[in-house]
Amino acid sequence: MPPAVLKSELQELSRELGFSDCRVALALPAAHRELYEQWVADGKYGDMAWMARNVERRMDPAWYYRGQSPSSSLR
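and the corresponding structure tokens:
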């Protein structure tokens, strides 16, 4: 199935299920990776230590979805 058709069907199904919006995007690495890594290195996360953990995972969503590139969000 072509990606555009799959996206359209996913959006239609989400509306049928009562969601007001459905977005689909590629899960690409963060464009601001170097800035985030420096921000963490500088300790600017304060008492939110969780932000300094798993930086690789935070910067590349594809890490979670090996072999898959699109990501969707419903609301």
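(Above: one complete record from the training split.) DSSP finds three helices and two strands in the chain.
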